[in-house]
Amino acid sequence: MHIHLPELSGLVLVYLLVFARTGAMVMLLPGIGEASVPPMVRLALALAISLALAPTVQSAYPQTAPTSSLALALLIGQEVTAGILVGTMARIIMSALQVAGTLIATQTGLAYAQTVDPTSHGEQSAIIGNFFSLLAVVLIFSTNLHHLAIAAVAGSYHMIPPGGALPTGDMAELTIRLVSGSFALGFQLAAPFLVFGFALSAGLGVLSRLMPQMQIYMVAMPANILVGFILMALILGSLMTLFLNFYTGQMGNFL
Predict the structure, then answer these.
(1) Which of 108, 134, 115, 112 is nearest to 232 (CA)?
(2) Burial of 5 per CB tally in 10 Å (0-12, 13-18, 19+)
(3) pLDDT recorded at residue 111
(4) Terminal-to-terminal C-alpha distance of the chain
(5) What whole-number distance in Å separates Cα of residue 255 and Cα of residue 253?
(6) Integer CA distances (angstroms), 163 to 45, 88, 209, in order
(7) Number of helices followed by number of strands (H, E) in the chain
(8) Res 240 pLDDT > 80
(9) pLDDT band at residue 120 under the 50/70/90 scheme
């Protein structure tokens, strides 16, 4: 198959470049970009989004094809970089839930096996994080916040215009702020469990002094897990609301 550069002009060229940016984003989006999602589904979604987005951003692209294959490759590479930036941004936001899940699992005792056997690769601690991530994806789609990801692709044309130099400084600053914000959010989501764990540990320490013959560990572990699940059931709605507000604010940086 041979591609003739003079034939790549007008809407055909625009659609090719928009698909490069959108396809890179779709492959990294949480929920859609997972390995369990069939590649054909992700490809069809990327094609559909590109088809809807191409007429609105047509004016941002050159109407004639680049004069050389190298120039076309550089233009496509820039579009892929912009799509990767948006998709990675959404991934970093979702990593806050994994941080919170790991802290909660460690505090409630669900990750005790990892403490005893560090080679377990954190399967136990990932249970709560995966639950949070799946719940967040469901809430994002049910509240139509997934439209922000599509709008972020359209908004990325203001931050990374086609054919211009990549704003590496702004991209690095945005990534650093997002990583620090996601890590801080993970601690905020796990804060109630950390406070509860500290109070429980202090109470059990006093109890062990008053009743040395009691097997504190046998009493503490079931109580820790039970109260942890009760606390999670009580504040799960507030935790997800806090995360969705953070997701909305961070994805709005591109709008």
Answers:
(1) 108
(2) middle
(3) 67
(4) 38
(5) 6
(6) 25, 22, 71
(7) 8, 0
(8) yes
(9) low
